[in-house]
Design a protein that fits this description.
The complex is a heterotrimer. Chain A is of the alpha/beta class. Chain A contains 13 helices and twelve strands. Chain A has one domain: Rossmann fold. In chain A, strands 6-7-8-3-9-10-12-11 form an eight-stranded mixed β-sheet, sandwiched between helices. A four-stranded antiparallel β-sheet of chain A has the order 2-1-4-5, covered by helices on one side. In chain A, strand 9 and strand 10 form a beta hairpin. In chain A, helix 5 packs across helix 7. Classes of the chains: A alpha/beta, B mainly alpha, C alpha/beta. Chains in contact: A-C, B-C. Bound molecules: adenosine-5'-triphosphate, adenosine-5'-diphosphate, iron/sulfur cluster (2 copies) and magnesium ion (MG) (2 copies). The site of adenosine-5'-diphosphate has 13 residues of chain A, from helix 1.
Chain lengths: 329, 304, 344
């Protein structure tokens, strides 16, 4: 297999506190192939955003990478100096955040911001950069882009702003775009438009995408593979369609059942009892064990790591013998 | 008991322990406040009881036996033979009493007006906040002087010394309520739109109950910070007024009065009559202020 | 307004021609200097509906469509600019009369944000007891305590949780506390304004199930507000669809999903992501919500409607009876809108 575009190995993120360090992300590993869209889902606090921030080197102190490695095209990027990382951010990795206003400076016009980003990373003249900027805005579906480029962010609606942020993320032709909850702050009818633009533009520019969201519907329509996170760990990772239609990890299947759908006929939703543990009291063994209906003794003591099952990986002891079988053959 | 153990386990106390400046400032403040409280027990003499004074002891050098009587005074004596250490303890009492009372007065007045302005809005809000704005354009000390002057004008001379302390409290308090009003109004504007206030309105709670039971407790954090910082300012304001001769009367001297009296002896070489009260005032104002600054940072979630 | 079938019993809630207009003008001085007239925003525009005892009526619509404004008027937090609300035949008039205080015992509200809806300085037990105490439902303090414990257990918490403060709970648990508070005065009618939209799906499932169980147990009537059609589908007997402050369609819940009539309803349904992977192609929605200060003429939906014609731009549509409800659309009235293709 060729080197993946992005490879995260055993990522551990900790926060020092006065009661000792809290482990917010604990041993996350995954690969992302070029051109692939990886969805990351999970409840709030599962560690999705932290994983994303770690990849782009924007962890808020005192949070830090305690161990593990991150490789971009085989080159290690988690231990770069801040200025080296700054050169990668924007140029090789683009970002789209939940609130478009955090990515746009209200004091500058859209043109200023786009052209500056383009010229920081690409050797283009002011004129060429402006042309590219208009082209980008046009691509993300801003009507009359050549006129509206000189507007300020507040003159755009929420959906339009998020389109501009997508244009900004793609301005320097990155290999990877990390989108953290890009549609959560938007109206339902606009969400679909933004997801479509994001996916279409990334495909066109050949960029891989990590799409972080708590909305399974968005993942279902957009991602190739999905990683389901729980308590700072990946519970299950694999092709979207298979995981949605036939989840293997008990948490994933509970999660899928709890989503109300239009087609469902029965009145009660499946519900997982209890709630995700706080970081300070994640139980030993499998972090899901107090809520799991398939729990057995081993789960309470030993922590399952990702076990390959068919073409996905599941962190659950139920699939242990599958691995043994796989190794035997 | 539970409250104490909760406090000892709290983040606030943890951060306090980790800040040497805060701990030091707290210790200095506590020592000063306690010695003021227990002044009659600690002070070697009551400097305002003429019976206990001996004029022969006048101008004793600090720490040296008096040339006539052979008595030794740690911080020396003034022209009347009053022990400077004792006058400081008693002066500290007056200064702290005026400071605390003035801040309490300003806090209650400011918080109530701020709460009403923020919650009712409209014209009431405009009137209250315009008065506050206008008052802010004058220096606080000027406002205090003005109020002091007016109060003096309307009280008969025979009562003046008796009411002087209360006038002082009123003057400093009135010059200081604006900050409290502004902060409480700001917090009220935020809180009144929160859903818990809607939930209370929905069951027909009266505005008064909503303001006092729901909103007020949620504005106390910033009020506490301002109160601490104001205390330092009020103590300095009191000292300034007394230094100018319009504050505490010589029969009830505060630290400011002592400094005023002391400066008359500075050039004749009896430096201690001025120096020690001044150092005490500085230590008190500085430590209270540092405590206030620390509290502000500790309660500000953005700086965490 | 023509409702589906005239019900013999009085509905619990009867709303007639309800409107709410906000004055969003700039301050007087700015208006004079910039020579601008006063500006008004019709947040709710001539809305009528009724809710029968024991049923759940849902209101759906996008942000700014007036859902919360209607909710606030129904529970007396906001005065309507026009129109009437009858609660069990009695007019809702916001005052502090004896009659109104009696009426207040009978309705309650659950809010969207589990973080802002509980006073952070109050113990949970006091939060839950407040409606009971203020409305005088229960006076004896031992009985109040017992009732609080009972309520905590009813919503799936434990009696010991009463002595904690809200920050010690997760979002889902706080919403349970908010539900316990809403039940404290034994109301018949509860307005739920997006009670789960701030929660994760797995927590949402717990809360929705709880709300349904409570409805069955206590015979509650809900007005359930949401922007999420799949959630509404789970909770409601009937659904009203709002667009720019006006109702555009009301229909029986199951039928609305089988045969949406109004073009906007269809658009909303098409925008729901396809989780079952049935291969249903989600249609991209055109355009964005117009500025409510200057709503479009005629049918306010016409700039985004694929079936709009010249009459739609001119004339405000009235109600047309559909098979299981009503819709406000010229196209539906003229029968020129093709039946929706249902892949569900
Ligand atoms: N107090 C107010 N003053 C002025 N305009 C207001 C006020 N309250 C609401 N509005 C406006 O009225 C319209 C309807 O608001 P409302 O809060 O009812 O929407 P909503 O459907 O609940 O939306 P959301 O999904 O965002 O909660 C919006 O355009 C809003 O900006
Ligand atoms: N600055 C911080 N200090 C302490 N804990 C933090 C901090 N930032 C995040 N966390 C914790 O790390 C966990 C994962 O957070 P995050 O990645 O933001 O979750 P999400 O999956 O919702 O994006 C959460 O429990 C969160 O409370
Ligand atoms: S490892 Fe055990 S507890 Fe964890 S999900 Fe699997 S069966 Fe459940
Ligand atoms: S009235 Fe006309 S514009 Fe409005 S929804 Fe119906 S067809 Fe579309
Ligand atoms: Mg996040
Ligand atoms: Mg709302």
């Amino acid at each position: 297999m060729s080197t993946p575009l992005l490879s995260v190995r055993d990522l551990v993120i900790k926060f020092p506190t006065r009661h000792g360090p809290l482990t917010a992300v604990d041993g996350v590993s995954f690969d992302l192939a070029a051109g692939e869209v990886l969805g990351v889902v999970g409840e709030s606090g599962a560690g999705k955003s932290l994983t994303g921030s770690a990849i782009i080197g924007l962890l808020d102190p005192p949070g830090h990478i305690a161990s593990g490695e991150i490789y971009l095209k085989g080159e290690r990027i988690d231990n770069l100096r801040p200025e080296e990382m700054r050169a990668i951010r924007g140029r090789r990795i683009g970002m789209v955040f939940q609130d478009p206003l955090t990515s746009l400076n209200p004091l500058y016009t859209i043109a200023d911001q786009l052209i500056e980003t383009i010229r920081t990373h690409l050797r283009l003249s002011e004129r060429e950069a402006r042309k590219r900027a208009i082209q980008l805005l046009d691509d993300v579906g801003i009507p009359a882009a050549s006129r509206r480029i000189d507007d300020y962010p507040h003159q755009f609606s929420g959906g339009m702003r998020q389109r501009v942020v997508i244009a900004l993320a793609l301005a320097a032709g990155p290999e990877l775009v990390i989108a953290d909850e890009p549609t959560t702050a938007l109206d339902v009818s606009v969400q679909a438009q933004i997801i479509d633009v994001l996916k279409e533009q990334c495909t066109q520019h050949g960029a891989s995408v990590i799409l972080i969201t708590h909305d399974m519907g968005v993942i279902a329509e957009t991602a190739d593979r999905v990683a389901v996170m729980y308590s700072g760990r990946i519970a299950e990772i694999g092709p979207v369609r298979e995981i949605i239609q036939n989840a293997k990890h008990p948490y994933t299947s509970g999660l899928m059942g709890s989503i109300p759908t239009l087609a469902q006929e029965e009145d009660r939703l499946v519900q997982i009892p209890g709630s995700m543990p706080r970081l300070s009291d994640i139980p030993p063994g499998c972090p899901f064990n107090p809520r799991c209906d398939k729990v057995f003794d081993k789960c309470r003591v030993h922590r399952p790591s990702l076990i390959p099952v068919e073409n996905r990986e599941v962190a659950c002891w139920l699939y242990e013998d599958t691995e043994a079988r796989g190794a035997a053959t | 008991m539970e409250a104490v153990s909760n406090f000892l386990a709290s983040d606030l106390f943890y951060r306090f322990r980790k800040s040497p400046v805060a701990v030091l400032a707290f210790i200095v403040t506590a020592v000063l406040v306690l010695s003021a409280l227990f002044a009659p027990l600690i002070a070697p003499q009551n400097p305002f009881d003429p019976g206990s004074l001996n004029l022969m002891n006048g101008f004793s050098q600090p720490g040296e036996p008096n040339q006539f009587t052979g008595e030794t005074f740690m911080l020396g004596t003034d022209d009347q033979g009053r022990d400077v250490f004792s006058t400081i303890l008693y002066g500290l009492r007056i200064s702290l009493f005026v400071g605390f009372s003035a801040v309490m007065f300003a806090m209650v007045l400011g918080s109530v007006l701020g709460l009403i302005a923020g919650y009712t809005g409209g014209r009431t809000d405009t009137i209250i906040m315009r008065i506050a704005d206008i008052q802010l354009t004058f220096p606080a000390i000027l406002v205090a002087l003005l109020i002091f002057g007016i109060a003096k004008g309307i009280t008969p001379p025979s009562y003046r010394d008796e009411v002087a302390i209360w006038v002082l409290i009123l003057a400093i308090g009135l010059s200081d309520w604006v900050q409290f009003a502004r902060v409480v109004r700001g917090a009220t504007l935020v809180e009144r739109n929160k859903e818990y206030v809607q939930a209370a309105k929905l069951i027909g709670r009266k505005p008064m109950a909503i303001m006092l039971k729901h909103i007020l407790p949620n504005t106390l954090g910033p009020v506490l910070v301002i109160a601490t910082i104001s205390l330092a300012l009020a103590i300095i304001a009191e000292a300034t007024l007394s230094f100018l001769g319009v504050g505490a009367p010589p029969t009830q001297p505060s630290l400011g009065t002592l400094i005023r009296i002391g400066q008359g002896f500075l050039f004749s070489g009896e430096y201690w009559i001025l120096l020690y009260p001044a150092v005490t005032l500085l230590a008190l104002a500085l430590s209270v202020n540092l405590l206030g600054d620390w509290l502000r940072d500790a309660l500000n979630p953005k700086l965490k | 307004m023509t409702e589906i079938s005239a019900q013999p019993e009085t509905p619990l809630i009867q709303v007639d021609n309800l409107s709410c207009v906000f004055d969003v003008s700039k301050p007087w001085l700015n208006r004079v200097v910039e020579r601008e007239p006063k500006q008004f925003l019709r947040a709710v525009d001539d809305v009528s509906f009724e809710i029968r005892k024991g049923e759940t009526l849902a209101l759906v619509g996008e942000s700014g469509s007036g859902k919360s404004t209607i909710a606030k008027m129904l529970v007396g937090l906001l005065e309507p600019s026009a129109g009437t609300i009858l609660f069990d035949g009695q007019p809702m008039i916001i005052d502090s009369s004896e009659r109104m205080m009696e009426l207040r015992k009978r309705f309650q509200m659950i809010f969207q944000s589990p973080y802002a809806s509980l006073n952070p300085r109050w113990k949970v037990a006091d939060v839950i007891a407040e409606p009971m105490v203020v409305l005088g439902v229960e006076k004896d303090s031992a009985k109040i305590q017992a009732r609080v414990d009972e309520l905590l257990e009813l919503v799936g918490l434990s009696a010991a949780d009463g002595s904690k403060f809200p920050h010690e709970f997760s979002g889902g648990q706080r919403q349970r506390i908010a539900i316990a508070r809403a039940l404290s005065s034994n109301p018949e009618f509860i307005v739920c304004d997006e009670p789960t939209s701030a929660l994760d799906v797995s927590v949402q499932a717990q809360i929705l199930n709880l709300m349904r169980d409570l409805q069955d147990q206590l015979g509650l009537t809900y007005l359930f507000i949401s922007h999420d059609l799949s959630v509404v589908r789970h909770m409601a007997n009937r659904i009203g669809v709002l667009y720019l402050g006006a109702l555009v369609e009301i229909a029986d819940s199951k039928e609305l999903f089988k045969a949406p009539q109004h073009p906007y309803t269809r658009m909303l349904l098409d925008a729901v992501p396809d989780l079952e992977m049935t291969g249903r192609q989600r249609k991209e929605v055109e355009g964005e919500i117009p500025n409510p200060i200057n709503p479009p003429s005629g049918c306010t939906f016409h700039p985004r409607c694929p079936f709009a014609n010249e009459r739609c731009e001119r004339e405000v549509p009235g109600w047309t009876q559909t098979r299981f409800g009503v819709a406000a659309c010229h196209g539906v009235g003229e029968g020129r809108i093709p039946a929706a293709e249902i892949t569900r």
